[in-house]
Amino acid sequence: MAVQITSHLMDHGGVPRSIVIGTAGHIDHGKTAVVRALTGVDTDRLPDEKRRGITIDLGFASLDAESIDKSPLRVSFIDVPGHALFVRNMLAGTGGIDAVMLVISAEEGVKPQTEEHLAICTLLGIERGLTVITKTDTVSDVRLNEIRQAVEHFLGNTPLAASLSPIIPVSAKTGAGIEQLRHELIALASRIPSKDTDMLPRLPLDRAFVMKGFGAVVTGTLIAGTVKADQLLSVEPEGRTARVRGIQVHGHVQQSVSASTRVAFNMAGIQVSELKRGDTLVEPSTIVAVDTIDAELSILGRTAPLKHNSHVHFHAFASDCMAAVSLYEYHPIEAETRRLARLRLSNPIVLLPGDRFVIRNGSPLTTIGGGRVLDVHPIPRLKKTACREWLQQVQNASADEQIVLRIARRAAAGISLKALSVETGKKNEALCERLKSLIQHSKLVLLPNNLLLTHDAFEACLSLLVTQLEAYVKETPAGGSKRAELRNLSRLEPEVFDSALEQLVKQRKLRIHNDLVVLVNGANHELDPDRAQLSTVSAAFEAAGLAPPSPEELARRMKIEPTEMHRLITQLLREKTLVRLGSDTLCMHHSAVAQLKKSIETQRGRTIDVAYFKTLTGVSRKYAIPLLEYLDRERITRKLADYRIVL
Question: Quick one: pLDDT at residue 54?
């Protein structure tokens, strides 16, 4: 069950602050009764819920209050079922909540769904909350003290540990402890920071129904952004457009609403049959539903290892579907460990980096783990090793570092501001503010049509054009290259090519005369005579990564005399562009070696053998042994018998 806190609109004359607090607990432990005692609202709305006396689907209530600093707050409850058969419905109500209220009966203590609900909240990254012991009127003081001690032990090192958050005994029947609970909820809500206003609007739908005289109505928790009345929204994944005819927040009509708030939208231009739980409302032409994500995946304790290519039930916000799990390292994920994985979803879902999810498996279905989304737009056909190394960098990167990494992986192709907004879920205006500093500090370059490149990638484009023009001039008598011809040779995007050419003209390295691009006088003296060949050899090694060709193979491929190739490689070794791996014939590009070092350092403290190293890097034994010996010399690994330990 979830609770949301804001103030009474009529009393304060403005839009109140809104916080979502989720309640959780075993069936018949009194979640609905506690909400009714706090708000006066019975959240069991379905006939079957009334008849059976249990919560089956999501229910909602609200509590108007004032925060500690007297600012307005509204508490909204989303009542979720506690029965094992309805955990799927429970998961639909947990998306977007800011804190959890864990409910445990004094009669029964901790039960299976208590454990599963708390595990789900932990997997979803919900770090704030409190614990309520209910039905205190039915047990003795001795029994209540025993239950309290058992609950404190159960909470252990979780975010709800007694040392970090309160445990409040209450009786919904007699009202004992309800005022203290209300006070603690307000105090908890006051400590929760406001939602990031830089994100694009997202409303995952948990209900869609027809209201007589109004038409289609949808409800959900607005997890990001702001929505106004009469605004057009797109329904993902189908992409249909509809208009927000009206907005209500727990019966109060509002002209706009911001995250995080429980809302009801009256929708125009769409039929209720076209809407369902799991759909997401977004601004048109912004965020889209995806069916492939890269994520950081965790497995709960006392859970069987999850194997490569397993199929699991995937839950995120109000959506659920099947997912195939492809592990970046093929050995199974053990309990209480974390790994990188690619998940292929059976149905498209609106997800963004940083979103949390839960996975379930088995018969009957139980929660086995969950994780954090790292990337929702993986680069197609990118080698698995390169993708894994990029994800390892993103895992612990700051917000600014993540932006740079997302632009850097596009290399010379760059990425548009709009595409970056879609990939990150951030508004264009918010991104521009972050980008200003990165551009000023020469980490990024902004080109025409809002195309973004890293500074290093743009510098590489400048060098590429000079090198290609030099090589072209050597082979042709024209003394230069036609602009279009040089563009085709470079294979750069038009904005990148034009900007790079303009920059080189400013630097007086090139000039353009009657559409002919030529090197300026003296440019050849600023470069080594054989710089073009050196660049070509360097590029060949860089492209080969951890499996470079031998000097003889490269000489044959490039039609260069072996002695000349030896001289070029020696020059590149002196410049530290290449790194020698213990033999005169085996060299690698320094960038490949640097990436390998970073990858291995993430395995610190782990023992690895040759077979595991080959799987990790994707190289054959021919390269694995020299690479391991190099890592030994660099004191990144230490050889012990038939294996190595990463230092």
Answer: 35
